[in-house]
Design brief:
Elements: E1 5-9, H1 14-24, E2 30-36, H2 43-46, E3 51-53, H3 56-60, E4 67-70, H4 77-86, E5 90-94, H5 101-114, E6 118-121, H6 128-139, E7 145-153, H7 163-166, H8 174-177, H9 179-190, E8 195-201, E9 212-219, E10 223-230, E11 240-244, E12 247-251, H10 257-262, E13 281-286, E14 292-297, H11 305-317, H12 325-336
Helix pairs in contact: 4-5, 5-12, 9-12
């Protein structure tokens, strides 16, 4: 891997510190070149060689930077994406890519017109649990699928400090926070639904935005996919349930990457991304004689490094990026509805 991509990061909050910096600093294809820190200058404590800029505009004006990672508040993605592309940069944009389908189409078309890549960061495709689900579905062991349930639950009965998630601005609320994860996983497995129905709820005291989300996706051959996210689930159960004519599979949301990264673990550590064996999925098949056969299905290692490898290969070698424009436009159509 001879070529390195000089990369700038637009923020060093949780997203930057946990989900981006550890990967662009350890992947051999990237040079972590610069970051934007408007107030507290702390990134150089972790990465002494990087430049710290006071503004997004200053970082984008740095001619040495080829790739800009846009991990700023949701409502800024559209404008920053256009600014970076017009400055001749490739972009990797945190979810949600934009607030609307029209904005996304404009950004994708702009990227093509200036000969740059506009890529979307959907890291939950690289969770251990999701990949266990994908492997079971791809194996065909469940037969024809009947219903699929994906949940992303938390218990946070307070108004959070991040105003862009709690105030009435573009791309706000739980549906734009966790909805992109759930929808991306469903769309990557099953494609565009024939129909969909969405429900939003507001349950926390004084909330201005939705903190409950339920989406039903209807697919051909009587397959129904149910996506749910809530801020008020005290007893969190399985995140994945798949029922087919031959049996069922269930799995909790046990991906360890976020917790490990929050604790300072680097993705190069051998134990990174490896689930506790007790969190293995449960496969229940029904034999022809009616006997139920139960099997524990361990998850393979989760690793967000694979996303950054895909970014690198797309920019350097023009290898197609698995998170497609079509996937994102379908997602945004449902979120915008």
């Amino acid at each position: 891997m001879n070529r390195k991509i000089n990369t700038g990061l637009l923020a060093y909050g949780m997203s930057g510190k946990v989900f981006h910096a550890p990967f662009i600093s350890t992947h051999n294809g990237f040079n972590f070149t610069a970051i934007v820190e408007r107030t507290n200058k702390i990134a150089q404590q972790d990465y002494p060689e990087i430049k710290s800029y006071n503004s997004v505009e200053e970082l984008i004006a740095d001619d040495s930077i080829e790739l800009v990672i846009i991990n700023t508040p949701n409502f800024t993605h559209y404008e920053y994406a256009k600014t970076a592309l017009n400055a001749g940069k490739h972009i990797l944009v945190e979810k949600p890519f934009t607030a609307t389908v029209a904005q996304a189409k404009e950004v994708f078309e702009l990227a093509k017109s200036v000969g740059k890549k506009a890529l979307v960061y959907q890291n939950r495709r690289f969770d251990s649990g999701y990949n266990a689900v994908k492997n079971i579905i791809d194996s065909g062991r469940l037969g024809k699928l009947i219903e699929v349930h994906f949940r992303y639950d938390r218990y946070r009965n307070t108004i959070g400090p991040k105003s862009f998630k709690e105030e009435i601005v573009e791309a706000t609320g739980l549906q734009y926070d966790l909805g992109p994860h759930l929808l991306d996983q469903a769309i990557s497995l099953f494609g565009k639904p024939e129909k969909y129905h969405k429900i939003l709820g507001k349950n926390r005291d004084h909330t201005k935005v939705d903190d409950y989300l339920a989406i039903q996706l209807s697919y051909p051959n009587d397959l129904y996919v149910f996506l749910t996210a809530s801020m008020l689930v005290a007893d969190i159960k399985e995140a994945f349930i798949i029922n087919g004519v031959k049996g069922s599979f269930s799995k909790n949301h046990a991906d360890v990457q976020e917790a490990q990264l929050l604790n300072g673990m680097k993705p190069t550590v051998p134990s990174y991304g490896i689930e506790d064996p007790k969190d293995a999925g449960k496969l229940t098949l029904v034999a022809e004689n009616g006997e139920r056969l139960v099997e524990s299905i361990p998850s393979k290692k989760g690793d967000y490094t694979a996303l950054f490898e895909a970014v690198y290969q797309n920019i350097v070698n023009d290898i197609p990026y698995g998170i497609t424009e079509e996937d994102i436009l379908i997602q945004l159509e449902i979120l915008e509805s």
